[in-house]
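From the methods appendix. Each design record in this collection lists the tokenized structure first, followed by the designed amino acid sequence. Records were kept in a plain field format so they could be parsed without special tools. The example shown here is representative of the layout used throughout.

RECORD:
FOLD TOKENS (623 positions):
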């Protein structure tokens, strides 16, 4: 393994030293040329009659746009943008539109002492002759909350917007904003303001001590001043041990009863990355029993490796290079002794960017390479005593689960599997041939399943409970609980719990899928998954979820009736034929009432001729 070193200031890559110096000499002339062209363009714009910069200032088209945007009043003034709220509303009444008015858009609380919450209600008046709609009230931060407000205000009427401000963590001067979006064409966005000064009887300035990024072998000291804002003499003491992790605190009284200084020292050993502690000081004041000071320190790891692992998405068509940056955060410089991989297919290269501090580790992944299931690794040996060995795992990305895989079964025969009833009987899928079967794969813990099953049960009891040619069957995907499963899977249920939960939802039969055939044989990845099968035993439709954009119960009812008549999925309303490459039910189908005329026939288009990037065509005839 060879470590390359790049000297600071030395050109690298495709730009040689001569080309680099030529660029440096040409840069001032290039900047001057751009400035001259820009100045000429500005001068031409000023000399053009009617331009925005010329005397008179506005073209006819611009004036017309400005007048049109002003709405039914105040001609010639452009309406404010929704992204630029106004701070004060105009005065006077208007006709032909709603008009928002607020006499006091700013609420000044003044000095507030120890109040946990502040409240105020803004009065909004409609000075127009049409209904004013408050479309949205949006505070600028999470500590400001808008209560229930009047969303519509009649002409000449008033409404209120109640606002609450949680003051926890606010010290000193504050200013909070609330944006009110309205249907007023002149003031579509109104800005309301809360301001004031939050004071505490005993204040720590600053209230948080942060050591930011420090090295693992360094010691630092910071301080905060604690001030008594009352007339009573203040006494302070630690509520608990003044030593917490790597932090130690010392309290120094600078002015008797008035001003104290809290010194906090951070010293090794540290935890990697974030270290935090909180020191609580007790007071002798009834108005405020204690003062809290938060302390944080971030200690970066000895070596910062980014990314900390290499992911190979798929077998590459050509060799590719993955880059890992290694940064030494310690005081002492470090050297890389070796960089190897436990997989002989991977080639490792190291470039030293800054001597003893930063390195780039390049891992060359050959064409067609896929990491083994157990993964492989790149090992870097250093001369550091604290971190002599660094491992970078190389893994393949797990294949994405196709949550719509059940739709690929449409048009195929039902799998030859058998489920068991709670009483111990067997129900074979082959026994369903000659009937229209409705199979609903569900889980008792699934909220969507609990909403879907009653819809099917209502349809079952209303129309198909006494029809011998229709079979409704719910297939439970619950994991039946054992002593081992109870500890491993919190969603596991006993058989009695599964049966009792289903009995509260529906009256048609249910079976248990203890062998996991729903996933392996029916490709069920989401719950609920509903399958409709014709009398020939073929799956004619798959509906996943509650149905988006159509009435699930009405659609299922119409599809069952068509299957009873001996028809197939090609006769279903709203049906769009699928091709051989993407079989399955079409999500978002039209409702039965809207189906038919609105469905556009599929237009077959000739494939676009795209030049191939490789001279050799794929062996399977496709890409």
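DESIGN:
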């Amino acid at each position: 393994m060879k470590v390359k070193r790049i000297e600071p200031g030395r050109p690298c890559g495709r730009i040689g030293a001569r080309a680099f110096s030529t660029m440096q000499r040409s840069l001032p002339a290039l900047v001057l040329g751009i400035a001259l062209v820009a100045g000429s363009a500005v001068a031409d714009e000023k000399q053009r009659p009617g331009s925005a910069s010329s005397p008179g200032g506005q073209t006819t088209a611009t004036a017309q746009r400005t007048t049109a945007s002003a709405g039914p009043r105040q001609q010639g003034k452009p309406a404010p943008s929704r992204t630029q709220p106004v701070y004060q509303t105009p005065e006077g009444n208007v006709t032909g539109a709603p008009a928002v008015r607020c006499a006091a858009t700013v609420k000044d609380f003044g000095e507030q002492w120890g109040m946990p919450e502040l409240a105020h209600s803004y009065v909004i008046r409609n000075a127009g002759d049409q209904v004013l709609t408050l479309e949205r009230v949006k505070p600028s931060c999470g500590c400001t909350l808008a209560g229930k407000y009047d969303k519509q205000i009649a002409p000449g009427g008033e409404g209120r917007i109640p606002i609450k401000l949680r003051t926890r963590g606010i010290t000193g001067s504050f200013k909070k904003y609330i944006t009110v979006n309205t249907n007023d064409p002149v003031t579509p966005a109104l800005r309301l303001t809360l301001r004031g000064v939050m004071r505490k009887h005993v204040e720590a300035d600053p209230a948080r001590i942060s050591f930011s990024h420090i090295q693992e072998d360094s010691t630092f000291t910071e301080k905060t001043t604690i001030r008594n804002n009352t007339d009573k003499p203040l006494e302070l003491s630690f509520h608990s041990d003044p030593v917490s992790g790597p932090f130690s605190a010392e309290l120094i009284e600078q002015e008797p009863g008035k001003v104290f200084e809290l010194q906090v020292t951070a010293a090794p050993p540290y935890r990697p990355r974030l270290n935090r502690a909180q020191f609580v000081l007790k007071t002798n004041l009834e108005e405020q029993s204690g003062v809290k000071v938060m302390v944080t320190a971030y200690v970066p790891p000895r070596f910062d490796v980014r990314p900390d692992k290499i992911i190979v998405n798929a077998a590459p068509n050509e060799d590719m290079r993955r880059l890992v940056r290694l940064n030494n955060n310690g005081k002492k410089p470090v050297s890389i002794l070796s960089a190897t991989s436990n997989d002989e297919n991977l080639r490792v290269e190291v470039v030293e960017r800054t001597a003893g501090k930063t390195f780039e580790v390049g891992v060359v992944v050959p064409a067609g390479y896929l990491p083994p299931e157990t993964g492989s690794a790149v090992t870097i040996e250093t001369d550091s005593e604290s971190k002599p060995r660094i491992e970078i795992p190389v893994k393949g990305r797990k294949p994405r689960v196709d949550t719509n895989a059940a739709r690929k079964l449409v048009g195929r025969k039902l799998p030859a599997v058998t489920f068991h009833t709670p009483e111990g009987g067997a129900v074979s899928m082959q026994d369903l041939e000659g009937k229209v079967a409705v199979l609903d794969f569900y889980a008792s813990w699934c909220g969507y399943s609990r909403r879907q099953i009653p819809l099917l049960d209502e349809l079952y009891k209303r129309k198909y409970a006494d029809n011998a040619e229709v079979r409704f069957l719910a297939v439970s995907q619950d994991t039946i609980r054992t002593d081992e499963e109870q500890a491993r899977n919190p969603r596991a249920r006993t058989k009695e719990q599964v049966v009792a939960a289903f009995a509260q939802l529906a009256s048609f039969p249910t079976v248990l899928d203890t062998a996991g055939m729903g996933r392996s044989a029916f490709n069920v990845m989401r719950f609920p998954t509903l399958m409709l099968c014709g009398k020939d035993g073929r799956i004619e439709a798959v509906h996943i979820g509650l149905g988006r954009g159509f009435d699930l119960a009405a659609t299922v009812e119409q599809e069952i009736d068509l299957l009873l008549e001996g028809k197939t999925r090609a006769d279903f309303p709203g049906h769009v034929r699928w091709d051989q490459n993407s079989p399955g039910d079409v999500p978002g189908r039209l409702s039965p009432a809207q189906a038919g005329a609105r469905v556009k026939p599929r237009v077959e288009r000739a494939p676009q001729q795209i030049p191939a990037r490789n001279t050799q065509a794929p062996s399977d005839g496709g890409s």
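APPENDIX NOTE: The domain at 97-199 is CATH 2.60.40.10 (Immunoglobulin-like).
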